[in-house]
């Protein structure tokens, strides 16, 4: 069979092209994310677990549940289809630029207000905002005399719970080396043996919250810095343009935007200028 009649039956579930198309449309409607054709196996694998948990026998029944607006399952659906891949000091050149160039610039520019605001948009399990907090603590000697805050948001409520807890498996902190590891983490004991927790001095700089980038943003800003890395690649071009313009709206003049190496605003808006490897400055 081919076209919409094509189907696959795996582990007892029928999964037709029509099911896949319907689910992709639901993903887009609720998250703004465009699922490519090669995401079929990912969709099946993640959502088949939801069918088993709910005692459903078909993807059609699951689609109807989401379409009917079942709020609890809508959150579980969103969590299931959201891809979360992150690491401490991922794309290290961004954090080098932040520490060596941008923070000294902000300390001069904001010396009167003594206020610095950063946003980690798509923070996943927290590695990015905690890395930002380390850099801020290390780069601002008198940080206690400054009003410094990091907003960390994500669409997935489950990863936000892990992020706010700040507890990580040993293998997840391998990117944090030497004295930095000793300074910013505490080894777990008892039931937490083999894990490590970030110190409270990092957690107190961060506010975690659930946010769908496609919906209203309750925060007013303005932000000096936005990190939104490897998030925009999941959106189509019109949605990317909308988000780049919204980022520009909420950034201060000459504010900085850090994005993934596969992302670029250059053909979508003229409100940013490239100043480094996937680092942009707002120009209007």
From TrEMBL:
Listed GO biological process terms: methylation
EC number from the UniProt entry: 2.1.1.80
What keywords does the record list, in alphabetical order?
A: Methyltransferase, S-adenosyl-L-methionine, Transferase
Quote the catalytic activity from the record: L-glutamyl-[protein] + S-adenosyl-L-methionine = [protein]-L-glutamate 5-O-methyl ester + S-adenosyl-L-homocysteine
Which sequence ranges are marked TM in the entry? none
Q: Where is the CheR-type methyltransferase domain?
A: 8-284
Enumerate the InterPro entries for this protein: Bact_Chemotaxis_MeTrfase, Chemotaxis_MeTrfase_CheR, CheR_C, CheR_MeTrfase, CheR_N, CheR_N_sf, SAM-dependent_MTases_sf
Q: Does the keyword S-adenosyl-L-methionine apply?
A: yes
UniProt binding sites for S-adenosyl-L-methionine: 84, 86, 90, 128, 154, 212-213, 229-230
Pfam families per UniProt = CheR, CheR_N
Report which superkingdom the organism of origin falls in. Bacteria
One of the entry's Gene Ontology molecular-function terms is: protein-glutamate O-methyltransferase activity
Cite the SMART domains for this sequence: MeTrc
Q: What does this protein do?
A: Methylation of the membrane-bound methyl-accepting chemotaxis proteins (MCP) to form gamma-glutamyl methyl ester residues in MCP.
Write the protein's name.
Chemotaxis protein methyltransferase
